[in-house]
Specification:
Elements (H helix, E strand, L loop, with lengths): L4 E5 L7 H9 L4 E2 L8 H10 L7 H20 L4 E5 L11 H4 L3 E6 L2 H14 L5 E5 L17 E5 L9 H15 L4 E7 L4 H7 L6 H15 L10 E8 L4 E8 L3 E5 L2 E5 L4 E8 L3 H10 L2 E8 L5 E8 L1
Parallel strand pairs: 1-5, 2-12, 3-4, 3-6, 4-5, 6-7
Antiparallel strand pairs: 7-14, 8-9, 9-12, 10-11, 13-14
Bound molecules: N,N-dimethyl-L-histidine.
Length: 318
């Protein structure tokens, strides 16, 4: 069988880590965008987080996708062009491929080499599936490669990555997806739910300290890649649920008064002062359905996983 595999590099020149540090440390509250977590070590640490017993989303979502694949296919039909922003190792889509029988698959990721390897492996595993991989920063744009065939589209966005946007950014992203899938296009999206804060707290403070290492890895990157003079041991991981805003917040907390230096810039941190590194918003179904509707996506169906801990939504563009 002739295999189809194309690769497209659309990675824009976006903010470097150095610029992000200068920008993020210059205001009253210090922060770094969470996309800088994902260097090679950060991606490996994130994969390890997904293996931790406290971090429930991957297991629940995967068992939902396996169990619901046929039911989802009945609602979407077969023969769609599926695109997946942030596809990573493209593992979750494999649970749906036999039922959804797509016309083509377009995995998108910011990590070009990783994407190329994952997409290449997928073509070997599913030789009947045309794959058109695109290296993109989906927080900026979602260009669909011109080699992808025409046909009804289905966007796939699992893992509750939508929670790492603010609700406003999430609405903008959903509106962009809605535009890309076109009229009657569909989106299958996994979203973490609001729940007992103790469960959320444990998920972002695993006993093995993997989430802490993931968070602290940002400081290693800042030092090794961006040339920031800093001592990672002078910081500690903090993650907590902000009930008012409905989000987990991750911070790096300064253990002492210290100065970080970079290219002539000096950034003072007081003891206990934090660098905000990530938000992970949680949505009750009615909140997420309203947010999607605001972005032009109407609910076709939603499913709740074990004890309502995670949700899958199938949405349709108006
Ligand atoms: C990728 N994203 C959906 C994860 C989350 O839960 O917000 C990232 C993560 N951060 C700490 N643990 C997992």
């Amino acid at each position: 069988m002739a295999k189809t595999f194309t690769f497209h590099d659309h990675k824009p020149k976006t903010l470097s880590l150095q610029d992000a540090v200068i920008q993020g440390f210059s205001g009253k509250y210090k922060s770094i965008p969470p996309k800088f977590f994902y260097d090679e070590r950060g991606s490996a640490l994130f994969a390890a987080i997904c293996e931790q017993p406290e971090y429930y989303p991957p297991d629940i979502e995967q068992s939902m996708l396996s169990r619901l694949a046929e039911e989802i296919a009945q609602l979407t039909g077969t023969g769609r062009v599926i695109f997946e922003p942030g596809a990573g190792a493209a593992t979750k889509i494999q649970l749906l491929l036999p039922a959804l029988k797509p016309l083509a698959y377009v995995p998108m990721d910011i990590s070009c080499e990783f994407l190329k390897a994952a997409a290449g492996a997928l073509v070997e595993e599913f030789p009947w599936l045309p794959v058109h991989a695109a290296c993109v920063d989906f927080t900026h744009s979602l260009p669909i490669p011109e080699t992808a065939p025409a046909g009804p589209r289905l966007a796939f966005f699992p893992g509750s990555s939508i929670g790492n946007f603010t609700p406003r950014e999430a609405r903008e992203f959903l509106a962009l997806v809605s535009d890309r899938i076109g009229r009657d296009g569909m989106l299958l999206i996994g979203v973490d739910t609001k729940k007992d804060p103790a469960i959320l707290h444990a998920a972002y403070n695993d006993a093995a300290g993997i989430t802490a290492a993931f968070n602290l890895n940002l400081l290693q990157r800042m030092r090794n890649e961006a040339g920031v003079e800093c001592a990672p041991e002078n910081f500690e991981h903090r993650a907590f649920y902000n009930r008012e805003l409905g989000r987990i917040e991750m911070h790096l907390v300064s253990r002492c008064r210290q100065t970080l230096r970079l290219n002539g810039y000096c950034f003072e941190l007081g003891e206990g002062e934090t660098v905000h590194t990530e938000n992970s918003y949680k949505y009750a179904p009615e909140e997420f359905i309203a947010l999607s509707a605001d972005a032009g996506l109407d609910l076709r169906h939603y499913w709740l996983g074990e004890q309502g801990l995670f949700a899958l939504y199938l949405l349709q563009s108006r």
